């Protein structure tokens, strides 16, 4: 009997570990229409900008012809700044069949992400009374939602600045903090006389695209602004091809005055500003119940 009890305890502990490892509900928990979670992952964006999803079953994956449905949008801001200029555009469907869903929407303030509260959540856009009608038989209403906003990348890395002989002989706790859909990489740090030369590369790591103008994603070259500091000193920076992401990548370098002839620890901070365009699609089948 004792052995059987021991086996039972082991099984229960193992089951608890499996369940705890599988549980990863990171969606916004809202009351009322927003329920628990934010819908299926196939309807969510990715990256560290702003993700768009929908409150559970709003809209449903199946609608009834002529019956109203509600679209409850959930915007999750993973960035460290408030966003006040997000624009949303609906597209990808036969608009003459649809009523209640506008072509464009301008959102209010989407709060920033914080260490204490996590990502900023905006649930203020709820569109009720959306109907699909005028077609025969079942209809595939698969709307796309494109949205554009001012994005930022905030990057900080603690590094060793080499001596004038280009050697680092001190211990530095290398730590990196990064936020934003455009990724920063420190490629090389060189000492050149009384100056420090740091080479950077940028790449788009999010699900969208850097744009010059919202809802215009066909430009090969896209603008960004950069501010780079080493400690408290602002760098004199030069971009190889101007401050533009060409096909999603860019390179630039900055020079700074030295603080010491020997090696020392410092922090590099990079702040980037740009416009970012993302898009998701919702798969919806509208059933015509009048067809036998």
Helix content: under 10%
Number of strands: 22
Order of helices and strands: HEEEEEEEEEEEEEEEEEEEEEE
What Rg, in angstroms, do the CA atoms define?
A: 25 Å
Oligomer: single chain
Helical region count? 1
User: At the third CATH level, what is the topology name of the largest domain?
Assistant: Immunoglobulin-like
What ranges have pLDDT less than 50 throughout 5 or more consecutive residues?
A: 1-46
Which class of secondary structure composition applies to the elements? mainly beta
CATH superfamily of the largest domain: Immunoglobulins
Q: The biggest beta sheet, please?
A: 8 strands, antiparallel
Span between N and C termini? 62 Å
CATH classification class of the largest domain: Mainly Beta
Per CATH, which architecture of the largest domain? Sandwich
How much of the residues is beta strand, in percent? over 45%
The general outline is elongated
User: What would the average pLDDT be, to the nearest integer?
Assistant: 86
Number of domains: 2
Written description of the protein model:
This protein has 292 residues and is mainly beta. The protein is 7% helix and 46% strand. The protein is built from one helix and 22 strands. The chain has one helix at residues 2-22, and strands at 50-54, 62-64, 69-77, 87-91, 98-99, 104-106, 120-122, 126-132, 139-141, 144-161, 176-179, 182-192, 195-204, 209-211, 221-223, 225-230, 233-234, 236-239, 244-246, 249-257, 264-281, 284-287. The strands form five sheets. Strands 4, 6, 10, 11, 14, 16, 17 and 21 form an eight-stranded antiparallel sheet that branches. Strands 1, 3, 5, 7 and 8 form a five-stranded antiparallel sheet that branches. A four-stranded antiparallel sheet has the order 12-13-20-18, with no helix packed on it. The N and C termini lie far apart (62 Å). 28% of the residues are buried.
């Amino acid at each position: 009997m004792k052995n059987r009890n021991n086996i039972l305890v082991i099984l229960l502990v193992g089951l608890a570990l499996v369940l705890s490892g599988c549980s990863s509900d990171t969606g916004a928990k809202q009351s009322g229409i927003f329920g628990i979670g934010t819908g299926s992952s196939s309807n969510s964006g990715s990256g560290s900008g702003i993700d768009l999803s929908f409150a559970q079953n709003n809209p449903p994956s199946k609608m009834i012809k002529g019956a109203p449905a509600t679209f409850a949008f959930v915007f999750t801001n993973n960035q460290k700044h408030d966003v006040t200029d997000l624009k949303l555009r609906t597209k990808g469907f036969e608009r003459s069949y649809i009523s209640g869903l506008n072509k464009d929407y301008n959102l209010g303030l989407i709060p920033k992400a914080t260490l204490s509260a996590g990502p900023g959540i905006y649930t203020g856009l709820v569109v009720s009374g959306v109907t699909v009608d005028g077609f025969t038989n079942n209809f595939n209403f698969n709307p796309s939602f494109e949205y554009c906003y001012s994005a930022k990348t905030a990057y900080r890395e603690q590094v060793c600045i080499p001596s004038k002989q280009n050697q680092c002989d001190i211990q530095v706790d290398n730590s990196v903090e990064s936020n934003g859909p455009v990724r920063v990489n420190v490629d090389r740090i060189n000492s050149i006389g009384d100056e420090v030369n740091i080479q950077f590369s940028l790449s788009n790591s999010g699900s969208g695209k850097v744009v010059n103008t919202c809802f215009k994603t066909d430009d090969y070259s896209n603008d960004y602004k950069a501010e780079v500091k080493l400690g408290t000193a602002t760098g004199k920076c030069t971009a190889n091809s101007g401050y533009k992401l060409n096909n999603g990548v860019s390179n630039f370098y900055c020079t700074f005055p030295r603080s010491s002839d020997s090696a020392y620890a410092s922090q590099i901070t990079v702040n980037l500003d740009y416009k970012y365009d993302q898009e998701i699609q919702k798969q919806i089948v509208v059933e015509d119940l009048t067809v036998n």
